[in-house]
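Do me a favour: review this protein, sequence plus structure tokens, and tell me how the chain folds. Record follows.
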Amino acid sequence: YTAYTVDTSTALLIRPLLEDKTIEIFLGSWCGDSKREVPRMIKILQTALFDTSHLKLIFVDNSTSKYKQSPQHEEAGKLVHHVPTIIIYEHNKELGRIIESPVVSLEKDMLAILTKSSYKPNYQGIAYWHKNVKKANRLLSDERLQTIAGTIKPYCKRMSEFNAYGYVLLAQKNYTEALNVFKLNTFIFPDVAGTYDSLGEAYMDTGDKENSKKNYEKVLQLTPGDANALKMLDKLKQ
């Protein structure tokens, strides 16, 4: 907070646009991105004379069973998969959000959202999936997922993007979509052992030992001697 220098010229443009707006920030005290961006955002809002009674900070969990969930589940239905997620509302309708880090800067990203300009936050691959593909009630075929992976891959920088989303879904016990997402990630990043490790874990959580075993064996093909894969394969024999 102290070290950050606010872009005051942009903050002055933001000031009148913040009238009648409310802001929710989903964050984690355990999250480095939250520790960096949220104090900066608060300083910007104070510079813009935002009424902070219209600001809500919602802390989410990092444990496996409650991953990215708040105690009162304010995140439900809001597609919170990375934090911080900063959501700006106008009359209870979402205008836009900044996810994890700004695309340009917090000030300029906010200005784009508040002026209803064309703005796309990080993780457009997940946004595409949620809007165009999401099927919570059935497993998608490998062929279908491969086609989707070809479309989504240009939007994905790291395997951790969909991986984190998959674990959010697992914590919600949304097993079908979690399996779809983890399997999709193996098609986007077929040479990354971590994608198969996570898919193996998801299959184990759903009781599908055979498919879990296949994916941990794939991990060993890519990273021979992987300690976790060996441990999980031994567990699957029991």
Observations:
- The radius of gyration is 20 Å.
- The first strand starts at residue 21 and ends at 27.
- Strands lie at 21-27, 55-59, 85-90, 93-99.
- The longest helix spans residues 32-47.
